[in-house]
Amino acid sequence: MRFIVVTGMSGAGKSTAMKILEDLGYFCVDNLPVPLVKKFAELSFGSEGGIDKVALGVDIRSGDVQELESVLDTIPKKEIFFLDACDETLIKRFKETRRIHPLVPEGRVDEGITLERKELEELKKQADYIIETDNLLTRDLRREMEKIFVQNKDYKNLMVTVLSFGFKYGIPVDSDLVFDVRFMPNPYYDRRLRKMTGNDWEVRRYVMDSPVSVEFITKLEDMITFLIPNYIAEGKNQLVISVGCTGGKHRSVTVANTLYEKLSQNADYGINIIHRDIGRE
User: Fold this and answer.
1) Structural domains in the chain?
2) Sequence-separated (6 or more) residues with CB below 8 Å from residue 94
3) Whole-prediction pTM value?
4) Which residues, 6+ apart, have CB-to-CB distance to 281 below 8 Å?
5) What gap in Å lies between CA 166 and CA 34, rounded to an integer?
6) Are 255 and 217 in contact (CB under 8 A)?
7) pLDDT tens-place string over residues 58-98
8) Which end of the chain has a smaller Cβ tally under 10 Å, C or N?
């Protein structure tokens, strides 16, 4: 029996995660009141082979969090899956969906987020898996969940986002590390390549044919590979590596793709890639 408790901040993607688990063959029950959680767990573990994969969704709406923590302590073989996002992302999502925060139905969303984060602080510390969903599309979240709940990989609680951008549009505000690759050969000045992007093989070859570019990637990979275990040990849950060129279309996309491919090889942490400015002119 695999018993997954799905929880986290309101707006971080719990409902989406539950749908993904259902697609992965889990028997899913969402928003169960705290007093019923223990009984549900007992029935699940006593099903005698009828159900072998269960996902239980609980959050701030389920009832008293301290009571929930006490109930979860009585469930022996559980895994807590916690979904989180930064305050700015959560506020944006609440505004887009025009939903009210469950803790402050007549107050400001940011006040509710602050209260909820404090309420869930201890539960997050007990989590076996933590995923920050700020920069994740649904397909990215599904890929990371498959690593944990299908492939059973040894998953470290760190989500790495490799992000390409153009300096002319501003440095991404959520960057942890920023690298400027404007010193590399610029395909923009080749008319044949100008309308292409770093996702095209011709542009990638143009950029990476330079020994300087190859050496930079080697040194960058070496440094990131060194940093990631130390960030994991520190307890960091999200790392945004931003790579910028002038317009965010050629060089930064090429380097971001190359770094992503290298880091993805046998990675035991989450990783995704975003090209923020690739479609801008």
Assistant:
1) 2-153 (3.40.50.300), 159-275 (no CATH)
2) 11, 100, 101, 109
3) 0.78
4) none
5) 48
6) yes
7) 988 888 888 989 999 998 889 999 999 999 999 999 988 88
8) C
